[in-house]
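We emphasize that the prediction below concerns an isolated chain of 406 residues; any contacts that depend on oligomerization or on bound cofactors are therefore not represented. The input was used exactly as deposited, without trimming of termini.
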Amino acid sequence: MRIGSIDVGDLNGDGSPDVVVAFQTTFQLTWFSNLDGLGEFSVGTDIDTYEDGDQSRSVKVADLDGDGDLDVIMASKQGDRVTWYENTDGEATFALGVDISTTADGAITLALADLDGDDDLDVISASVFSGLAWYENSNGSGAFSLGVSLEPADDPAGGKDVVTADIDGDGDMDIISASFDGNHTAGNFPDGRILWLENDGLGSFAEGRDVGLLDSARNVVAVDLDNDGDIDLLACENVGGHIVWYENTDGTGNFSEAIAIAIDIGVHSLIAVDLDGDGDIDIATATRDDAEVVWYENLLIEIDDDDGGSDATGTTATPAPTPAVTPSPDDVTTDPAADTGDSDNDSAEDLWTNEMLIAVVSTVASAMFLGLVKILWDRRPRLAVIEAPVGYPNRSICQNCPEPVG
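Result of the prediction step, given as a token string:
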């Protein structure tokens, strides 16, 4: 079976997080109750089942009707649908699905945010053929307006991913998308635009600005990677395997050129989270074909203060050069001098001046969703952890993992 998407939230009001899974090839939307709050999960209960071929590709958990419990919303690629399932009693009794849209042509990804400043959650969809659209939660109770397309009528860009964040620091939520269709081409593959749409605070969006261009953009994440208080963008594409980030240089949406992190052919998805508890954001990626999950540690360089001390959170102000050797699971280098050719390591100017030095630890696991460990009851993969010798990357082997999403 293939998993289209997962999300987590307390659906039955017992104080522990439950899990919702969109099964892509078995055409089910299913939730699993966290029975004891410690990760002992029930057998799955279907919220909905679909006709053959009507694949669910994205699922989100949120309170869409303002009644204090968590509802479920799903995007169907083949069905061109965005569908909301109301949690009617706060105990995970779900109503029949209500279609917010049936014209999201190839709906593949969802985002939820208050786009118009009225204190309820609106819905944004990215669709393969019709691109971006948003749906206003018109009364805060789940009555949604018709979708407003955010694409030029004569040239919609095919959406692959969509997120929201306050890119320009003006207090409202902007939209960022990764696409693979539009005005540019790369060989036989459609384009990979990373696009930012500025919000005026009322849900009116400026024409999209290209932040970057990749061969086939798969994911985009909005996160502060350099700890300077503004939102940067992180992206990956699975054709060339590039994992890059774009620095928000002034906090108002002026982005640097792409800064290379790694090349990992077949990279399929990524997340950004503090994996080692050191206060900065690391990266984890999953590849499509070789079932590998890799994490990249974010190492902020200490910058000398004027008085000769150091500032552990300081970073350089200019974009860093591309590493001489791209980090990979089989080529791990954490010594800046080794990468730059500085044999005596005697000058700060000889060091990489990137905000992030990337140390790579490879771990082999299920290739689609990161952190999916002991979630599904009878269907969950079995995880065996092998302790490696000191100084060698730890590896985790996931057996009987579900096939990654195509």
